[in-house]
Amino acid sequence: MSTINVLGIFSDDENFKFSRYTLHENGTLGITYRGEHRNVGIRRIKHDSIDFELMKKYHHNCNVKTTAIRNLRVIDCKGPLSQGSIQAPQNCRYAALSYVWGSNGPVSSSGAASGPIPPSKVVEDAISATLSMGIRYLWVDRHDQVSQMGNIYSNSEVTFIVAAGEDAEYGIPGIGTTPRRRQLQEIIGNTELLQCFPNSSYAIASSKWATRGWTFQEGVLSRRKIIFTDDGASYICQFFHNSEIMPKPLHWQQWPTEKMKGLMPRLDRIEKFAQDMLQNYSRRNLTHNSDAFDACLGILQEMANANIGQIWGVPIVYRYNRYYAIWLEWEHEQPVQRRPSFPSWSYLGWVGPIKWCAIPGFRTEKMAIGDTKTAFYNIHSLFDNRLKFLETRYSCLHLTGKVFEPVMMDTAWIEQDRSYRFKAYQTVENAYGERVFTRHLADGFYAHLKICNNIRMLIRAQLDVVGFVLNESETSGTEVLLLRARDNIYERVGFFSVSYWGFPTECKRRFHSY
Predict the structure, then answer these.
(1) 21-37 pLDDT per residue, tens
(2) Domain residues of the chain, as ranges?
């Protein structure tokens, strides 16, 4: 019987990263010399089953300490599903499930019932996966345990992420009746050509799972994950990323690609990537706007463990070992809708992606929280008393600082003034290059802000606004919140910053004096 060799691409460099060949969104193909044995490369996978023995091998090489969760309710995978959830035995090992509900999900996190777990194909398949991993108990999201979700996912033995299908009835590809995509193969003589599917980050990024708000913290907080897509299974922990179709030796431990980092950032660096995480979370969708705080509660709790406080989801950090500063310097790049159940000064108060604009600089000694009339808590004193996770009973932010009122003008541009050009630096092939852009101004209402005698700043606006100065410096510039009067309070409607680079000295001092 003749030997069949696998086709692969290899380098003489022992440090060569083979995973780069699976990063293309259309997959790839590789080549190896006939008769040469390599412990890496594309392998044949089945469309109707998953290699859980390989997943267990990865799992046993990822040591993560876990903590027992109190009052945990789990499914006993060796018992009938009809018995529902049971009280978890003491110090039990359990798998957690992360998936999309679809149109038959709960009313909301606050209104969901805590009764039996509804039967679904994905739960049935997850029970099979749990037993295949040598684990007996499975936790499926129960929204009566929303305050514990962060701890539940971070302390699970492994989390099954189902990044396939549109709802719970799709199931897990490769388990039960849900097949995976067939791997193309061709035999020519004694050589076999095998299709290698794209890196799993592509399938995850294009999945319904990657668009949902609740699943973001489930992916971030889980320290060990098996990700199921229509192309195959992948294992990710804090130390390495390995796949079913193209396994690498375990001593080649490396963190996933940049694309995967954006989907599931490392939890052990949360103090560094907190802004990125909340920015990515703001891009996710929620069926119920009232879930916006609860769906990121686990991430906020982890931030608190890293000495990053928060109020209504807005981080508060210690700056330069001197004072606390609140992160109010964010903006939207396009018009968005309000979430009326959350304050306007929090990104949770708006539906749509945010972008952080500057290093947080507004000092909390100038800020208090309360109702529309009274400030009850000074944020700075609360943090001095080491209260890192503030309550959200009150939603009005009381700020002390400089305020100015721009002049609103209905502006019609003459053609010679309608267009303007500016220069920007771009990186092209690791080299900086200058590029000139042309922009065209539209007619309409603008807020005019006089910076000095010959220079005005114009802000396109459709309503009367007031500017509140968050931070100002003659060297770096000024950051301003735009506020609109509503009843007896102000509502945040925008943010802008002014950089003084290239401005005459007298202009810097003039604006600085507002």
Answers:
(1) 333 444 445 444 334 44
(2) 18-264, 269-400, 407-413+444-512
